[in-house]
Amino acid sequence: MAFGRTEKAAELESKLAQKSREEGWAQWSLRQGMQALPEALEDWLRRTGRVEILQEVEVQRLERTAGGSAWEIKLHDGSIKADHIISAMPAKALSSVLPPGASPLSEELRRITSVTVAVVNLEYEGLILPVEGFGHLVPSSESRGVLGIVYDSVAFPQHNRKDGQSTRLTVMMGGAWFSEVFGDPEEVREELLLQTAAQAVRTHLGVDAEPIWSNVSLQKDCIPQYTVGHWERIDKIRQYLGQHSLPLSLVGSSYQGVSVNDVIFSSKRAVERLLGNEQTHLDTLGCGRGLFTPSK
Question: Taking a C-beta distance cutoff of 8 angstroms, is the pair 215, 120 a contact?
């Protein structure tokens, strides 16, 4: 879904965003990897001295206050009161901490499932790719185990080694077929994932060499699945939030886009909505300050 930009939006656009639009960026990264983005945000927020950040603190449950206009967030060793909650938790995780009175909302959230993906990074000596490009996807009819391979050295040459030529690849595996191919994510061996990834590189790209470096990462329940009926579920969630005036905004990859760009955009819209600055034609998932956009 695309929307035209207003003059006000153009004025607020950062210089970096303007540059990306002018140069037609198709992809972007950061010198120290994507983790640098939340780390920089955390650093900036701490330096303002206006926020408190709690890390590695599990939310036990959410309860409405007596008047129903705010929340009490129950933690393991205490609680926090909040006028409004912006939740970036996966939908299923959020459903498990909502109060019993919000069971219709919890039920819809539980229906948004996620899948596990194994991410295997491989590095090879020299320039060994037979083709150039961003990478390739693998149809499920050919392989249910391997989803695709990203040619990192081509996509982001800025991250290449400075002291010699090498080829970096990322193999993504599993997804909706993870359990079918690899078994229980809790029990799968890293050696099996590494072997499968290296074999995929040999089969797809004709690379006979062994990798000189590798890293295996198992991302459990990392990609929400927008199955048939997803947008009807989103409509029901939106309607529930509005009808019950819940001081709750939902952001993150479970709802309206799984990419980093989508998540940033949904978060920006949620804040704009709370501040009363949101364009009225944008769909939102939340309730606050009397603004609610019904489903079309």
Answer: yes
